[in-house]
Design a protein that fits this description.
By secondary structure, the chain is of the alpha/beta class. It is 33% helix and 19% strand. The protein has a 7-stranded mixed beta sheet, sandwiched between helices.
Length: 251
């Protein structure tokens, strides 16, 4: 797991940066080490690679841009992730996203009415997620339902699955090695691969999820990927680049 420090963009943000560093057990202060760094800016916490500045920043923004467009015009309950978790008329499942990353799928499900618990184990990613969540809670448009429906947790996936209250659905989107050349991968995924690496315990997390999900486990995979743990799903929701493998635990 790549070590990473937290710094503040300006003096006024130093206290906030120190609080984030303490909360997620990350070092605070400038580092001479090349590569990735978390920077608290006036717009929020960002992940930046000082060796590749052209990649730009990665941050969590649920209030605008592509995320807002997906929330407002993405197809509602007809979109693939909603179908995969079983969200339909009369059924609004609770969802534990055990590999939350930047929380986008979880946020979409929450916007459709689901109670969502977001779990992220990597401290730097968890810090980005928490910072974005806090800002979203204060937003005049989405803050009320974010506060009511979304919870953020920092911890190991298996331990959190076992310790949190049972959810109807456990959602897994483990990091999977991309077969495309690096230049073709989005900046966000390139930085995440550099920071987090592959989820080598994905099969073990899946096994625990099957034991604890109330109704189903949903695994998001690239279209070319093998089934997780070599186990064929009960059914699938397929999109152009990805698929959602659905494993029913209570058919």
């Amino acid at each position: 797991m790549t070590a990473i420090s937290v710094i503040a963009e300006c003096a006024e943000l130093v206290d906030g940066a120190k609080q984030l560093a303490r909360r997620f057990n990350l070092p605070f202060g400038p580092s001479n080490a090349p590569g990735l760094q978390l920077i608290l800016t006036v717009r929020g916490l960002v992940l930046r690679d000082r060796e590749q500045p052209k990649l730009g920043d990665v941050w969590v923004d649920w209030t605008g841009g592509a995320v807002a467009h997906r929330r407002n015009f993405g197809g509602g309950r007809g979109q693939a992730v909603a179908k995969a978790v079983g969200l339909k008329k009369g059924q609004t499942p609770s969802v534990l996203d055990a590999t939350a990353g930047l929380g986008r799928d979880g946020m979409v499900l929450a916007s459709l009415g689901c109670q969502v618990s977001l779990v992220e184990r990597h401290p730097a990613v968890a810090a980005l997620l928490y910072d974005g969540y806090q800002r979203a809670c204060l937003d005049s448009d989405i803050g009320q339902w974010i506060t009511e429906r979304v919870q953020c947790h920092h911890g190991q996936s298996r331990e959190m699955i076992e310790s949190l209250p049972q959810h109807d659905v456990i959602y897994l989107d483990p990091m999977f090695p991309h077969r495309q050349k690096s230049a073709q991968i989005k900046k966000e995924m390139r930085l995440f691969q550099q920071l987090v690496g592959a989820d080598e315990d994905a099969d073990a997390v899946f096994t625990v999820a099957l034991q604890h999900a109330g109704k189903r486990v949903v695994v998001k995979r690239p279209d070319y990927a093998d089934f997780i743990a070599g186990q064929q799903p009960h059914h699938q929701i397929v999109t152009k680049k990805n698929r959602f493998d659905v494993y029913m635990t209570n058919p």
